[in-house]
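Hey, quick one: can you model this chain's 3D structure?
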Amino acid sequence: MQFIRFAFTILFFLSVICGAHYFLYTSSIRFFSISDPMHKKILFRLMTFLALSFLPSAILLRTNNTIFTSLYYIIAGTWLGLAVYFLFAAVVIWIIFGAGKLIGTIPDMRMISIVCVIIACLTTAYGVWRAQYPEIKNIDIKIERLPAVWQGKTIVQLSDVHLGSINRVGFMKRIAEKVNRVNPYLILITGDLFDGMGGDLPSFIEPLNALKASKGIFFVTGNHEGYLKLTEPVSVIKKTNIRILNNEVVDIDGLQIAGISFPEHNLKNNVRSMLETSAVFDPARPNILMYHMPTNISDQYNNRAEQQTRTYWHPDTSMSLAKEMGIDLQLSGHTHNGQFFPFNLLTHYIYNGFDYGLHKDGSFQIFISRGAGTWGPPMRVGCPPEIVVINLR
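Sure thing. Here's the predicted structure for all 393 residues.
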């Protein structure tokens, strides 16, 4: 049954992608007046190749990480993002054409098509450039009963950096430089530090060790560390100054930091029991919860299929267990805030509005970061990458 669900998902994804590319193919023929049979055949084959490129490129990169498979993955991912804006361009062109027919005056559709295609290309180029330069996001957060030693201190949240074949050593060095300029008291990394597509992970040891924080650096796993079966990401992190919190709590000068691993790594992870039996955790004292997903931390699923469905398509955003356990602030990521328009609208819908920003419910607060990196299309449009600087009050 699980295999059938997976196969159906892949077939659905490919059907949507192929249908979109066929629409681009027919629109190109219509508005660029392509009539030569040979040119049509070349365009059709090119569109078919591009439509079917992303999944094979991802598989090749994971199984054989070379400069050629990396380049293929980058091209396929970038095209996927560009194709989205080409689709927008095609829809606009057809609307203008239809409006022209209604009023009896059809404008120069070839020129309009060229302008729309140029805008789509420029938007994608901007998105690719923007993705490489995360911005500093400052936010003030008030935590009740905060010890005097923490008053006015800064915590940096890094999430979804996705280090690997696309976001390489230079990218991590730029992040480390920006983080260190803030001079944070604490750095909390809320999952997907590494990308599930592989890469030379040991090369990131040095730039990760460049991160500096007075009270340390802590990390919890995300779903992409799971795609790498945890072994290599964990072994790399253990060679850095970063401490992994695997379903445990630490007390730092009166502020409790709880780190919950991504549930895919342990389907029967009993978070309630862990917190209740912890020798450190006390809900009466101030605390911060690190959890990759902006969802409930109950993590009890009957099987993998149920876990996948509730994680990605029907998430529980009640945060009921965190509220019940007296969590003051939950830090999460995962959604990328859609990464680029219009997918921010989709994540907003799927996560019931909990796809970005600070949300409050009584004494409970959750902040969801857009993340610093990218997955798939290496671009950011309307959802800039960020390094979150939390000023404690």
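One thing worth noting: The domain at 134-392 is CATH 3.60.21.10 (Purple Acid Phosphatase; chain A, domain 2).
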